[in-house]
Amino acid sequence: MSQSSDCVIIREVGLRDGLQSIARILPTEQKKEWIRGAWDAGQREIEVGSFVPARLLPQLADTAELVAFAKTLPGLVVSVLVPNLKGAEHAMESGADLMLLPLSASHAHSLANLRKTPDEVLAEIARIRAARDAAGSNCLLEVGISTAFGCTIQGRVEPSEVLRLLQAALDAGVDRVGLADTVGYADPRAVKHLFERALVIAGDRLDCGHFHDTRGLGMANVMAAFDLGITRFDASLAGIGGCPHAPGASGNVASEDLAYLFASMGVDTGIDIDRLLTLRSRVAAWLQGEPLHGTLWRAGLPKTMQRARAVRS
User: Fold this and answer.
1) Per the residue annotation, which of 139, 151, 208, 243 is the catalytic one?
2) What percent of the chain has pLDDT over 70?
3) Domain 9-312 is in which class?
4) pLDDT value of position 247
């Protein structure tokens, strides 16, 4: 991986993956406060939104404004999700540092989510790569292979199909790829086996793990990928988010819990957990009545970690 195993990047995806799953529309100024708060807490990569039609996801209609604001924060890598070429053009115009392109390994999920087969999405990815090169843009292209461990619509997703699509995405010229347990079907053994095979194909271009905690295995799955050398993970403050095709899903692994996991093992994320918990309280107040998740906010940091931090300071 591009990072040392003593250093992990946690990309905050709550502003996109989280808020798109919530009916209420968070005011733009509160989103900016969230971005600034995450940056103040030490997070250096944030997915601020998605360039999708506002009629489909009015919750994310202010993405361009959020990119512009996020770009004023030094050292912040600003990510956006784009579903197609038009969205990619908007991402490049906005000045985003990275665009995430979803590619579902489940044929049924791909049709339900993007109204295209996986191979039609691959053709669109190739067009996006060509458009980026023609524009002279420095925006990185990352493909996240969703439903890589199973699908609520289709059921089983064959690992061989995941690996075929992974190779095809790399052949289409993307810079990075990641594997996503979109609906919370993965277990640590499955994560180990699939990531091992994917690493043979992608090497250090396999750069992200995206896990949901739908059935309580999110953190264990993160550890299975980390043990193989994956050092970049998506997470959402308060564990919000989910998939519209996975009813009852509890959402992504919680950013604050993931930061604590790595801090407890002495792995640097650059995150001030106290500040992140303070931000969580603010966001929870804005989202009052919405289902929130995670465990660290209830128990707080253990005395052993508090004492160690006091000695270091």
Assistant:
1) 243
2) 93
3) alpha beta
4) 60
**What's the whole-number average pLDDT of the chain?**
93
Rounded to an integer, the average pLDDT of 65-90 is 98
Query: In angstroms, what CA-CA distances link 117 with 86, 124, 136?
Result: 18, 11, 29
Q: What is the DSSP letter of 203?
A: G
Q: Please say whether the dihedral angle defined by the alpha carbons of residues 63, 66, 71 and 75, taken in this order, is positive or negative.
A: negative
What are the φ/ψ torsions at residue 53 (nearest 5 degrees)?
-55, 135
Cα gap 37→215, rounded to integer Å: 29
180/101 Cα distance (integer angstroms) = 12
Bridge partners of 178?
144, 208
Question: Residue 134: in which H helix or E strand, if any?
Answer: helix 118-135
Token code pair at residue 191: 């994560």
Three-state SS letters, 166-200: HHHHHHCCCCEEEEEECCCCCCHHHHHHHHHHHHH
Contacting residues for 60 by C-beta, under 8 A, at least 6 apart: 16, 19, 20, 49, 50, 52, 54
Q: Does residue 309 surpass a pLDDT of 90? A: no
Q: What angle do helix axes 255-264 and 273-286 make, rounded to 10 degrees?
A: 170
Region of 184 (left: φ > 0; alpha: ψ -120 to 50; beta: rest) is left
- Is 243 catalytic? The answer is yes
pTM of the model: 0.94
Judged against a pLDDT cut of 90, whether residue 3 lies above it is answered with no
Task: Give Rg (Cα) of the chain.
Answer: 18
Domain limits, the chain: 9-312
Query: Mean pLDDT, to the nearest integer, of 182-198?
Result: 97
pLDDT 10s digits, 34-69 = 999 999 999 999 999 999 999 999 999 999 999 999
Question: How many Å from the N-terminal Cα to the C-terminal Cα in the chain?
Answer: 31
